[in-house]
Write a structure and sequence with these properties.
single chain; about 425 residues; alpha/beta; Rossmann fold; 7-stranded parallel sheet; 6-stranded parallel sheet; about 15% strand
């Protein structure tokens, strides 16, 4: 089959969950023997232009469109006052990109078109006109409206809270409407699948759960020694995403002072692209803020615990899969672990209050067997159900069956008309 993949971002470098999720599909599709022609058409933000020159995926027909999608107060206010559409969606609707999509459709005649995220959904009606027989698939990275609703709830400023709540309502309506344009909807967790079914009951039978994946090593890497030195904590997040900024502030202001008061000997490495200047002020004997790091291996191989203090979010934290795959046990909030927690033995140490988060870290600092149990359980879980090749192979088989069924129906319809 021929497969066209459309995204609103270039998935390079693979330094955040969104990029890794898109890239995982790009690479797995490109290697799948049932896919004859794989084209990838994506937007590229101006600030990521250097990466578009660097990234050349093997075996993929790549086309990129450079856009200015930067947020600004004038743009946001104009949208708020003069539009009823959600700001963070309509800014990715571009005539030039629509032309690029049209050219790719004409060149390859796709059997399947994979739309990555709600930000690309506006191009689905165009596809329905240009290639009506093509299977339209929407991969949902999150329930987008839920993130904004949670941000509004957490915002102390009344004016900002009202503006965020307005955008949340717009996204919720947009999301419900756009789901109708797709033949198959890939929710990333059971929780998000339930949210989509509640948003638009008419698409219930089109929704399946396909989690994010991970690149798995052949065996569980060895744990770093912990004898006499500090407990090494690690926090990795893309810091241009507001929920990650809020989570790190909560860790900085509410949790670290409790670790200090408890006398814990620890060192925290803070890593992530687009690090706001305020967080570099955290640098101290017990904290190192690195910003963007090309090679994470020296830091991840030394880490005893990963902390994921997210207070707002939806979907799945790919970073937890990555921590599991390299053998780092995880302490996380329930929001951060959504879709990944549960089961026996426990795979994540859950904690939602500053006291419980700090207390859990302190307990695991002195309980080596408990840390080992968490790392073993996490690695077993990611190995059993989250390898990219297996996830995408199952999905491609579903595509093939749906395409074949659609072709059979079309052939029957033609025969009936001829008769």
């Amino acid at each position: 089959m021929n497969l066209l993949q459309i995204a609103h971002r270039i998935p390079w470098p693979p330094n955040d969950g969104g990029n890794k999720g898109v890239l995982g599909f790009v690479e797995a599709y490109s290697r799948h023997r049932a896919i004859n022609h794989h084209a990838f058409v994506c937007m590229c933000r101006m600030e990521d232009e250097r990466w578009s020159r660097e990234w050349r995926p093997f075996g993929v027909d790549l086309s990129t469109e450079l856009i200015d999608a930067r947020n600004s107060v004038p743009r946001f206010l104009a949208n708020t006052l003069f539009s009823r559409q959600p700001f963070n969606m309509v800014k990715y609707e571009r005539v030039s990109f629509a032309a690029r999509v049209q050219a790719s459709i004409a060149a390859m005649l796709p059997d399947v078109v994979h739309f990555d995220g709600l930000h690309t959904a506006a191009y689905a009606p165009q596809l329905a006109k240009l290639a009506p027989s093509a299977l339209r698939v929407l991969r949902c990275h999150n329930a987008e409206y839920m993130i904004l609703e949670r941000l509004a709830e957490a915002e102390p400023n009344p004016l900002k809270r009202a503006l965020i709540a307005l955008q949340a309502r717009r996204v919720k309506g947009y999301e419900a409407q756009m789901l109708s344009h797709f033949d198959l909807i890939l929710a990333i967790t059971d929780t998000d699948a339930a949210r989509f079914k509640a948003l638009n009951p008419h698409v219930t039978d089109r929704i399946i759960v396909v989690p994010a994946g991970a690149n798995l090593p052949p065996a569980l890497p060895p744990a770093p020694p912990h004898m006499g030195g500090p407990l090494r904590l690690i926090h990795i997040a893309a810091m241009d995403w507001l929920p990650n900024q809020g989570g790190l502030r909560w860790l900085r202001d509410e949790v670290l002072p409790l670790l200090d008061a408890a006398g814990l000997d620890y060192h925290l490495d803070v890593i992530g692209k687009s690090m706001p200047e305020e967080f570099f002020a955290m640098n101290a004997p017990r904290v190192t803020v690195h910003g963007f790091v090309d090679d994470l291996t020296p830091l991840t191989s030394a880490a005893h615990l990963a902390v994921v203090p997210l207070k707002v979010g939806s979907g799945m934290r790919v970073k937890i899969l990555d921590y599991w795959s390299v053998g780092i046990p995880v302490v996380a909030t329930r929001v951060a672990a959504e879709g990944l927690d549960g089961g026996d033995p426990p795979v994540v140490a859950l904690a939602d209050t500053p006291q419980s988060f700090a207390g859990t870290i302190c307990k695991l600092a002195v309980d080596g067997p408990a840390r080992s149990a968490l790392r073993n359980a996490g690695f077993a879980k990611v190995s059993a159900g989250y390898g990219w090749p297996s996830l995408v192979n199952d999905l491609v088989q579903r595509y093939a069956a749906m395409v074949m069924r659609r072709s059979s129906v079309s052939a029957l319809s033609i025969t009936s008309h001829a008769s």
